[in-house]
Amino acid sequence: MIELTGSTLTLKEMKRILFDKEKIVIAPRSLENVKKSRDVVEGIVREGKTVYGINTGFGKFSDVRIHEKDVNKLQLHLIRSHACGVGEPFPKLVSKAMVVLRLNALLKGVSGVRPCLVERLRDLVNEEIIPVVPSQGSLGASGDLAPLSHLALVLVGEGEVYDGEATKPTAEVYDGRGMAPLELKAKEGLALINGTQAMTAMGVLNYLKADQLMEQCDWIAAMTLESLEGIIDAFHPAIHEARGYPEQMEVAERIRTITKGSKLITRQGEKRVQDAYSLRCIPQVHGASRQSLSYVKEKLEIEMNAATDNPLILDDGATVVSGGNFHGQPIALAMDFMKIAVAELANISERRVERLVNPQLNDLPGFLSPDPGLQSGAMILQYTAASLVSENKTLAHPASVDSIPSSANQEDHVSMGTIGARHAYQIVLNAQKVLAIELICALQALEYRGVDKASKAIQDLHQNARTVVASMEEDRVFARDIDALTGWLERTAFQWELTKNESITN
């Protein structure tokens, strides 16, 4: 069980909730804070005070006072009218993460919702009743209004949810499980949708996938390095210490460790004086992307535990104030940074693919073909990699530099963070495919060199990967190989045991 407090949730815990389906519980003290903030809202309604979102309209309608008898109806109207999402649904794991993150934010006890509402969110997670949420329609300020409205619909028994991998009307699933819809009370609709949980949930999945890819790209690059008889001197620890970036030093050490004992790795001057940048600069490029991912992790873990709705109930109820914590700029910038970092992993991988298949750049059979000319071998694999990295370059354009005013210019600057998060997801998927293509080519090149000459670690990688895709003995539909290896990368953490090697002596 993972206890949610509103302030302690980590990415490691999110991984367990999402991928291991670990159950969640609500911290008792956090539930008490929820009750206290709810008492404040109910006092406001009783006393007839004018407070935004409790007894006023929204956005440009913030000056319209709502009669006490209509404050509950106001919340339902809000959810229904704002459920304007379009496009393909978010991946199921993202929608689940949205529920977890919205629950965690409400547990900070500054949003004014009832305990029964947070308990229902908990039950949705634990019972795997996951909202179907369209992925397009958020501006990333005033919160992820459209996506979160589709999430909120599920609480009132409307919209659709996943039932296994199929989708069903929420009302049908509730009936089947003996669950009753909630009636939203004052402020609860607004508290559910004023937040950054769609972009943050997408960012969480992006990070978890990219973090695994960072590890895998070092291994795959190391196999390419051996297959091309690369020069190990460029990974000398003193070179990387002289620059001082910890991530660069870590990548260099990992490459040295993975290639330890290889009879294919060469020394400076044995075959050539220098390697091309796509080999020589692996630590500098991979290391810089790791730096970027560390920044993304820091911002995500802050936002995962942030109160992002409006207004907030502060100072034990003494202060109810409108602010702008729903503005997604911190996550928008982080997602744009992630897009560039992951796109660069794919960029340099594609350049290594070119060095593996181009007979003008190596002494291997042209395009790694078993019968050059009659059989094209890996020729079009490189085309596909080039297409994917080119697509990534367009997706990597920063979404956060754009803003379009909304709500009659009341909301006149928005983050577009959810667009950035969605594009980052596509870049990660594309990068996985490019790395899979590099691995296909490196496996084949290694066999031409002699697998028995490779390091023990690379032999292990070769053996494991060859259970997924066979050697190129004849041209075949390589799209199937790409899909198979991409799926394998998705499922597999490269954690074979390594013995650290601090020198470059092999």
UniProtKB/TrEMBL annotation:
Entries under PROSITE patterns matching the protein: PAL_HISTIDASE (PS00488)
Superkingdom, natural source: Bacteria
Keywords: Cytoplasm, Histidine metabolism, Lyase
Gene3D superfamilies from the UniProt entry: Fumarase/aspartase (Central domain), Fumarase/aspartase (N-terminal domain)
Pathway(s): Amino-acid degradation; L-histidine degradation into L-glutamate; N-formimidoyl-L-glutamate from L-histidine: step 1/3
Localization annotation: Cytoplasm
Cross-link (5-imidazolinone (Ala-Gly)): 141-143
Enzyme class: lyase
Keyword Lyase: yes
Signal peptide bounds: none
EC assignment: 4.3.1.3
Residues bearing the modification 2,3-didehydroalanine (Ser): 142
InterPro entries: Aromatic_Lyase, Fumarase/histidase_N, HutH, L-Aspartase-like, Phe/His_NH3-lyase_AS
Keyword Cell inner membrane applies: no
Maturation and modification: Contains an active site 4-methylidene-imidazol-5-one (MIO), which is formed autocatalytically by cyclization and dehydration of residues Ala-Ser-Gly.
A molecular function (GO) term: histidine ammonia-lyase activity
Catalytic activity from the UniProt record: L-histidine = trans-urocanate + NH4(+)
Family the entry assigns: Belongs to the PAL/histidase family.
Protein name: Histidine ammonia-lyase
Species whose genome carries this gene: Pontibacillus chungwhensis
